[in-house]
């Protein structure tokens, strides 16, 4: 484990790609220890939950696909009418097959299966996805399988269920996340996704309910701390820059310059109908409507042995956090309180502090959500999230790279998959599998933050590399 | 634990209500030991899962409500236009409040919360119900909460998640199930519920996809074993008779005579559009489209102590089964293979055999499903399920009462609630709380079987009374 100032120490000491010059100055200090972890009684149960240690042994993503990707079929695509985009069944199958191949697991040895999905019932008329997951391999017949749903944190909940399965005695657990969203128009999709809000109370906010809810946060945050379009542009530019290096990213071939993102214009409009919030959100502030799946294999120590592997082939989920706030009330619009609870739980559970983090995956459903996540986790002090991004400290070559594959804005956001993708991305980074977007130095500790709704369901994992 | 022939022994030995005369003759023998439990390797993991014992400490149901209940508001109700039926939020709140009151638990002491729901996204435009559950009490803020979905087995999956939480170190876990279904027409509801089938492949079977799937089973079973409308009528008559004694039942005030149920007629029509299957299913063969919620409190041994209670106030979930088959294929139409796997897992896990059962709650989404459940569990041999029902052995005063509160046909079937309702009903029966439908003798062992889709996701619990 690294000392509190471990990130700085690493940055100076290690011969990583680009060298010390990448530690750009000036930049804000990482948050002071005044950001307190949540009370320890909250994390007691989690410590017990990990009495049996759990590890990620491998996994696979599909291509994340949607408008803006050259392979995505839509009316202006030359293959339109000739072939279809992959179905949910296709997408899930591909990721499961990829995970089986990556880990070499004997499917018959898998004890349980979990799947995260938000609204298959609406986008593809399909619920009951535990049974679909059980159908991805003949050896899965009659095994325990279940679907977890917590809006955009569905994948994180599936992984938590997998960790409980390990705690309860399972040795090998397959955890999938999947979403297909491109079957509906953006406006219809906005209505479907509004099921993550308190629909009865909040749907009327805008046709695009969630973009409006986060525009409201941009407004509130700006009123308290000051915030410009340029501030938010740094997050979008980083996301696309990382995605441009990631062949699986939805936005792999779309570039986003600072010039493009830094203001509203015809090609980057303020698109909300709600007049109060319209000026605060642009297209570049938003994550993507993506199709995709991510699947990983969890293993206990006995499970790793069954795979014929060793600890050094894995990363450990050394800490977990799970906090849920009431759907019926609005929290503080200038911070992600539930993210703070869950991420600090995960760090306390793992016995680390924010200064130990080498890398993170946070839930950038909107640029403001990444900004507020920095502050909630403690990577930046309150009001300093934008400055941290602008400094480059969270870029691929920064002190604590965040969302190295492009995050929800660049990699894409098939909502049920995101919470599985995040820890699998930490695994891939820690094991040097990220190709052009590989962080060029050893990584010991990573953190994920997966958020459902407007700071309502949050799942966080503290992930430790075994070398 | 009772010997294999424990039910017969109890029937002779115990001074229960109605006495030995209730052991009607003639009746088929309970199934022979030739019905093998599933291989023990399937249950290994489950045994480990229960390393920390888990108990039901209490709970509550709301009224199960829908068409046919005098309190249900619809166009012919005198209050139509003056007041509304309870919302999902109302229904969930009432059941949570009921559970808190029944158990006396300090809400702040609850470690985690789970909720089963099938398609809130469609009937009430609301997903993300973990966050709704977190909103039912201020002390639940920032606690872990999640929604499980596995079609009509969603409630069972939520309870399994609760058991894993106990295994992982939690002491008190609240488990809810809820569904609101009366917001849509029967035909639209049929489309929504078809998300539990493989929609792409099976939706076209009939406007009422699931009724058609079970009519197909009636046809296939009849072709193999012989089956009459009269055979199935016994199940419907039992369900309504039990419901008539249960004030919370949807069909509390609706009677169903054998004469009414034994054939198709104007008031009991064959309603399917599919001509091949239409003759096989009548209205009385179907469970109800109900609104309702059930909530129970799970406790570890330490949790029971926190409640200031003793083991004798609880029932133990001594065995669990969870089996899921592929959504993409059709199984044997004459048996419930997945039910067999899950229920035998639960019994093996608890160390009991079918002869030990004093009571059961099975998934009578259709009369044929209860019949096939008898055979899958081993209460009847293959081809003998109807005879078992006709003998009265599963009636309230029979050897092994099944669905004493009316089951899905009589009590009602708010799909996400059913899998929570079943074990809570066993608790209520074992603790003598069932009023007019109380079984009049001590009950030691009970079994539940909760099925999602057409024998796809099955969750089963072996429940032991502590006296």
Q: Keywords for this structure?
A:
disordered N terminus, homodimer, alpha/beta, 467 residues
Describe the structure.
Two copies of one chain form a homodimer. With 467 residues, chain A is of the alpha/beta class. Chain A has a domain at 186-285. Chain A is built from 17 helices and nine strands. The first copy, chain A, has a nine-stranded mixed sheet, sandwiched between helices. Chain A is globular. At the A-B interface, helix 2, helix 4, helix 5, strand 3 and helix 6 of A face helix 2, helix 4, helix 5, strand 3 and helix 6 of B. Strand 3 of chain A pairs antiparallel with strand 3 (145-149) of chain B.
Spell the H/E element sequence of chain A: HHEHEHHEHEHHHHHEHEHEHHHHEE
What is the first-to-last residue Cα distance of chain A? 13 Å
Strand line-up across the major sheet of chain A: 3-2-4-5-1-6-9-8-7
Binned, the helix content of chain A reads 25-40%
Biggest interface, CB < 8 A: A-B, 74 and 75 residues
Query: Roughly how many Å is the radius of gyration of chain A?
Result: 20 Å
Largest sheet of chain A: 9 strands, mixed
The coarse overall form of chain A would be globular
Could you give the count of β-strands of chain A?
9
Summarize the structure.
The structure is a homodimer of 467-residue chains. The first copy, chain A, is α/β, with parallel strands linked by helices and 467 residues long.
